[in-house]
Design brief:
seven-stranded mixed β-sheet; 323 residues; 9 helices
């Protein structure tokens, strides 16, 4: 079946069933059966009498084979588990990690029924429009350093979106990416660890790519790459490019043993700095976001006391912008 797909992709235009059969030393009936199997997997193949078969929009195909094929990263995304529907890709990677899966194992879904963001908030994951993925990391770091991985994920995604769309995405510390003051990307990092040892980290990334509309309650706070640019984008390339970018940032972080080499780049991409924010916790307070520390924390100046504090984690909203 996939040998037939290779012939169609190489041809780039119509190729007769007879020619396919000759190339592969199979009958025309076998070619037809292979074409039907490819269609069942979602490949769009046009058939015209006396012209043959033609693969339509191959760049939009989104499945395990397409995601693994043509990747540039060495480890990230080398093994892909693709789900037409699942509750959460983070849950799938956690299961795979506990079963001994290798670092870089990737779970991708067309539909998430229980996608979630920070503090258990639901994440809308409609079919065929976005990128909903989770990747397994096994860093040799202490648990206190793990929160930095979320920031590295934000840098990787920002880099890819800037290069592919010419938009200007910005990071809202620590885990969201905005385009035009609306949220387009969420990153949820979860860790399995002991007091001094990280067993594994699951990094979940959700991107609104080709979404054309949102429910009424989300229209003022959520956006997509399509809505901001008027263009559609190949999700396969977005995933592959993110895996390549993330691997590069991740390896550089492990080599340096610190977030310090990425500080200046993160500051330039962070929309939170210099803004008045609300820091949520047991007692929410208003502050001005001053800087990002070498540990990836947010340094703020409280409005009520004027004192500087470090925010290690939690929910921070920018006043005048969605939470």
């Amino acid at each position: 079946m996939y040998r037939i797909l290779d012939v169609l992709q190489q041809a780039g235009d119509f190729v007769s069933g007879q020619e396919i059969g000759n190339q592969l030393s199979v009958s025309r009936a076998a070619v037809w059966k292979g074409i039907e199997k490819l269609r069942q997997e979602g490949y769009e193949i046009e058939a015209i009498t006396n012209k043959g078969y033609r693969l339509i929009h191959p760049e939009t195909m989104y499945n395990q084979r397409e995601l693994e094929k043509g990747r540039k990263a060495q480890r990230m995304g080398k093994t892909v588990h693709f789900f037409q529907e699942t509750d959460s890709t983070n849950n799938r990677i956690r299961e795979l990690a506990l079963a001994g899966a290798k670092e870089g194992t990737l779970a991708v879904a067309e539909l998430q029924t229980q996608g979630r963001g920070r503090r258990g908030k639901p994440w809308q994951s409609p079919v065929g429009t976005g990128v909903w993925l989770s990747v397994l990391l096994r860093p040799n770091i202490v648990p206190a350093q793990a929160s930095v991985l979320t920031l590295l994920g934000g840098l990787a995604v920002c880099e890819v979106l800037q290069n592919m769309t010419q938009l200007q995405p910005q990071i809202k510390w620590p885990n969201d990416i905005y385009v035009g003051n609306k949220k387009a990307v969420g990153i949820l990092t979860e860790m399995d660890c002991e007091l001094t040892e990280v067993h594994f980290v699951v990094m979940g990334i959700g991107i609104n790519v080709n979404t054309k509309e949102f429910p009424e309650d989300l229209q003022d706070i959520a956006t997509s790459l399509y809505l901001e640019s008027g263009q559609t984008y190949p999700r396969k390339k977005i995933v592959q490019n993110i895996m390549e970018s993330l691997e590069r940032y991740y390896d550089a972080f492990l080599a340096a043993g610190s977030f310090e080499p990425f500080l200046e780049q993160y500051r330039k991409n962070c929309m939170t700095l210099g803004k008045e924010v609300v820091v949520y916790g047991k007692e929410p307070f208003v502050a001005t976001a001053l800087d990002i520390t070498q540990e990836g924390e947010l340094l703020v100046k409280r409005a009520d006391t004027g004192k500087k504090e470090v925010v290690y984690a939690g929910e921070v909203s920018i006043r005048g912008v969605m939470k």
